[in-house]
Design goal:
The protein is of the alpha+beta class and 363 residues long. The chain is built from 7 helices and 12 strands. The longest helix is centred in the N-terminal third of the chain and has 16 residues, at 26-41.
Length: 363
């Protein structure tokens, strides 16, 4: 039984949740257990109020208690996700086999002035020819497992990162690479294999740990390079990549392919593909112009007037200084303009430099 709640928790579920107790404080852990039970029991929309209704706590707990758990409680979503990943791998992935991690992004459509980090993103499920949508874009990493009662594979989400435009988090590949590295660090001694689509291919993959492999689809105009050569011992930074390789069409025409059997959607019989091995390094991808639907929206912190992202500083305006009056200095009894280095016109209080009197003006 949970404290201050009339919700019986099964012993098997409580055993799993007990492994996550060190990540919370005692009051937060009681709230977490109630929300976890409501999330599993709710058959409708799993909102905060819906979770409380699914757990039967809508009249026992104040709704602020559940909302405060997500906004102000002391717990880290990344640490919780890595703990869930360790628990899933220990129970559902056989020892010695690689851990398969699927990474993709999803668009959570939200509108309003108080929706933070909302912008226009690509939405493959949008109706019509323009596959765009407005809302929050999340990059999700899930551990792929096989369950005895299900024929197909099941993906269990463990980590999620929010895409924020005009910041370092605007790159989905950068976020995916960080999540893959975090999962590899949380699973020492296990090989991690990441599967993603063509949006997750680029130079960021060169920063992966050695125990992580990445399967993706390259663009037809992808730039590939040979591995960097050995250091020559000369001064200067060593080369990061080798010579540029030909295009993918040229490489495919000259490569040696072998026939392999792959498993797709649970089917293996009669599904054979051609495979070729090539050791190379990815380079910078060709620039693609932005569409109008992908213009950024200025993101602001909730309750704050300052911008979250750093914008370019405007060029300082040059103030026009007033013209300096000519200063006359005396040099060997002569008045000379010190700024232009020319002789000053004679005046009443100065004697003439030469003995020739100036020409009188025409009447």
């Amino acid at each position: 039984m949970l404290a201050d709640a009339t919700l019986p928790v099964p012993a098997s579920l409580m055993t799993l949740l007990a492994d996550l107790a060190p990540l919370f404080t005692a009051p937060s852990f009681r709230t977490f257990c109630g929300l976890a039970c409501g999330f599993l029991a709710q058959t409708g929309k799993r909102t905060v109020c819906g979770i409380l209704a699914g757990a039967g706590l809508a009249r026992c707990w104040n709704h602020d208690r559940a909302h405060r758990f997500f906004s102000r409680a002391r717990w880290s979503p990344d640490e919780l996700g890595l703990a869930v990943a360790r628990l899933v791998v220990a129970l559902l992935v056989p020892a010695g086999e690689p851990v398969t991690v699927a990474i993709d992004d999803t668009l959570f459509k939200r509108r309003g002035k108080k929706v933070w980090a909302a912008a226009w993103f690509h939405d493959g499920s949008a109706p019509g020819p323009a596959k765009t949508g407005y809302g929050n874009n999340w990059v999700v990493a899930a551990v792929v497992v096989r369950l005895p009662a299900v024929r197909r594979s099941v993906a269990i989400p463990v980590l999620a990162k929010l895409v924020i435009k005009d910041t370092s988090s605007a790159s989905r590949l950068w976020l995916a690479r960080r999540m893959a590295a975090a999962v590899a660090d949380a699973l020492p001694g296990r090989h991690v294999h990441v599967v993603a689509d063509s949006a997750y291919a680029g130079r960021e993959l060169g920063k992966l740990p050695p125990q992580v492999t990445w399967t993706t689809r390259l663009r037809k105009d992808a730039a590939l390079y040979e591995p960097p050569p050995a250091r020559t011992g000369r001064r200067g930074r060593p080369r990061e990549k080798g010579n540029r390789l030909p295009s993918l069409a040229t490489l495919a025409a000259t490569a040696a392919f072998t026939s392999v059997t792959v498993t797709r959607y649970g089917k293996t019989a009669g599904d054979r593909r051609q495979q070729a091995n090539l050791r190379c390094r990815a380079g910078p991808q060709p620039h693609r112009p932005r569409r109008r639907a992908h213009r950024t929206v200025p993101a602001r912190l909730p309750g704050d007037r300052r911008h979250l992202v750093r914008h370019r500083r405007p060029r300082p305006r040059r103030r026009r200084r007033p013209p300096h009056p000519r200063s006359l200095v005396h040099h060997q009894g002569r008045a000379i303009d010190s700024r232009h280095g020319c002789q000053a016109p004679p005046g009443r209080h100065r004697r003439q430099i030469s003995g020739i009197s100036p020409r009188p003006a025409n009447p």
